[in-house]
Amino acid sequence: MADDNIEFKTDCSELKSLIDLEDIKSLNKMVVAPEKYREELGLDKEEVTIFSEMLEASRQTGNYEIGHENDDYNLGNPGPITSLLETEFSLKCRENNGPIHLSSILMHRITEGHAFEEGNKRTAFLSASVFIVRWQITRKPKGPAAIPKLTEDLLEALRSIADNEDTTPKDLESIFGDKLRTRIEEINSS
After folding, report:
1. Minimal CA–CA distance to 66: which of 41, 90, 89, 87?
2. Nearest 5°: phi and psi at 175?
3. Cα–Cα–Cα angle for 84, 11, 115, nearest 5°?
4. Pair 107, 128: CB distance under 8 Å
5. CA separation for the pair 10, 98 (Å, rounded)
6. How far apart are CA 130 and CA 166, in angstroms?
7. CA–CA dist 53, 47 (Å, integer)
């Protein structure tokens, strides 16, 4: 990675502080009802038009908190996400505690599990992005956090997973890691 001051390992005991079910539900709400989410953030429609810009606005302001509601907005089947967060995620962390690896597992399982009625791929990408941003903040709280861009190749990999094709978490890890490295280099060069 571009920043040698950050050790690229995750403390497996901190996983729940990096992403939880309420975060993921809120992110899904952001992608399927962006107008309502913009209102909750107090943003004008002209200021922010797509969810990646909302996340970028959060990065620039340093506010990565996500508003939670107590409803199960659009959540059709919480089982895959609950299982992932409560057991599988910590097991995977013990095998490989790299944050890009864990982000890729998160993205793959959310996409594959079809837990939401709509917006699963976008929710998966944002969940992985929030995870990696929060991870960066715990390591380097004063520096800017890098948010990978949702590019066509990453989107195609997510589509492949949603269509039950052969894209693996390792494939996602490679693509997502490349996007993250590119964003870190862009931030460090500006």
Report:
1. 41
2. -65, -50
3. 15
4. yes
5. 6
6. 25
7. 9
DSSP state of 68: -
- Is the CA virtual torsion 111, 73, 56, 136 positive or negative? negative
The tokens for 179 are: 């996007």
CA 106, distance to chain mean position in Å, is: 8
What CATH code would you report for 12-189?
A: 1.20.120.1870
Residue 95 has a pLDDT of 92
- Express each pLDDT in 18-75 by its tens digit: 998 888 888 887 777 766 666 666 666 555 555 555 555 555 554 444 444 444 456 6
CB 139 within 8 A of CB 7: yes
How far apart CA 76 and CA 3 sit, in angstroms, is 40
Report which of 189, 111, 178, 118 is spatially closest to residue 149, judged by C-alpha positions. Answer: 178
Quick one: 27 exposed, middle or buried, by C-beta within 10 A (0-12, 13-18, 19+)?
buried
Q: Record the pTM.
A: 0.74
Sequence ranges of the domains in the chain? 12-189
Tell me which DSSP letter residue 50 carries: S
Give the span between the Cα atoms of 38 and 110, in whole angstroms: 23
pLDDT digits (tens, 9 = 90+) for 97-113: 988 899 999 998 898 88
> What is the rounded distance in angstroms from the CA atom of residue 99 to the CA atom of residue 128?
9
